[in-house]
């Protein structure tokens, strides 16, 4: 991790969404404190000797202005509303000192391997098939681009405007998210896929992993996960809001206590580094 090595010698790094501790302790001269919403994952980290705790991204249990750096790798895209994503970024900035850095990486809608999008389940499709039920007259048109815009109490919908909506959604998304096609290869992704940013992505958890426990057994029993014996894994559908170009910058544009010092695209991820100024 180049970012971590550049901060070597600093006192404290806070790692939000540390998972099983893959990146904790990479630099011996840095002191890491990790947090995650998953208690089983935190236990794995603790068993490895890491300093970790269970915490909510939008309400971190840390003192203000106390860390030299904060890191969030591939976690912000799991939050389902823009307000929560903004709040999580504000929390990361809050806990570092003035002059401290914050690194955030998220999955990009502009995937290098565009065929991946066809393997993911768009939120609208899963909502219709599993939450409303096949054959229901309450069928929605193409999904808007944010999860929070799907009203839970909507009683009626219509597919009559689906085709026109596809065109207008794509145009709106290209304007608001800067998703302008760059070359002929982008034609491989349909207009609907280009306008889609909310997905359920299959996540395979191998049987031998320590995370597979009674929780997985319960998820299987309740239909929240499925087994793939060929791959020897329990399969979960994980929610992702994939980010468009410029979206991370817009999330922080209204902050008065941090500035962007670097932004880049790396291996199908949008990345941003902030510096706290106040």
TrEMBL record:
A GO molecular function held by the record: tRNA methyltransferase activity
Domain annotation Methyltransferase type: ranges: 17-104
Alphabetical UniProt keywords: Methyltransferase, Transferase
Family annotation (InterPro entries): AlkB_tRNA_MeTrf/Diox, Methyltransf_11, SAM-dependent_MTases_sf
Region (Disordered): 139-170
Biological process according to GO: methylation; tRNA modification
Entry-linked Pfam families: Methyltransf_11 (PF08241)
Domain of life assignment: Eukaryota
PANTHER family: ALKYLATED DNA REPAIR PROTEIN ALKB HOMOLOG 8
Protein name, entry field: Alkylated DNA repair protein alkB homolog 8 isoform X3
Protein's organism: Theobroma cacao
């Amino acid at each position: 991790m180049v970012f971590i090595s550049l901060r070597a010698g600093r006192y404290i790094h806070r790692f939000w969404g540390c998972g099983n501790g893959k990146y904790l302790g990479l630099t011996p001269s840095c002191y890491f404190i990790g947090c995650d919403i998953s208690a089983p994952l935190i236990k794995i980290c603790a068993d490895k000797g890491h300093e970790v705790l269970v915490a909510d991204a939008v309400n971190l249990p840390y003192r203000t202005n106390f860390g030299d750096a904060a890191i969030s790798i591939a976690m912000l895209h799991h939050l389902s509303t823009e307000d929560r994503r903004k709040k999580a970024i504000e929390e990361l900035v809050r806990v570092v000192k003035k002059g401290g850095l914050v690194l955030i990486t998220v999955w990009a809608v502009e995937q290098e391997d565009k065929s991946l999008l066809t393997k993911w389940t768009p939120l609208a499709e899963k909502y219709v098939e599993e939450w409303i039920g096949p054959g229901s007259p309450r069928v929605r048109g193409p999904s808007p681009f944010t999860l929070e815009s799907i009203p839970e109490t909507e009683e009626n919908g219509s597919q009559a405007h689906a085709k026109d909506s596809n065109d207008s959604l794509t145009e709106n998304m290209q304007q608001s998210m800067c998703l302008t096609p760059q070359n002929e290869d982008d034609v491989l992704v349909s207009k609907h896929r280009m306008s889609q940013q909310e997905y359920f992505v299959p996540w395979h958890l191998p049987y031998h992993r320590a995370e597979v426990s009674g929780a997985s057994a319960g998820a299987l029993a309740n239909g929240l996960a499925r087994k793939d014996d060929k791959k020897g894994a329990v399969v979960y559908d994980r929610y992702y809001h994939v980010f468009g170009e410029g979206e991370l910058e817009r999330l922080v544009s209204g902050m008065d206590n941090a500035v962007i010092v670097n932004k880049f695209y790396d291996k199908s991820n949008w990345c941003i580094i902030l510096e706290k100024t106040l």
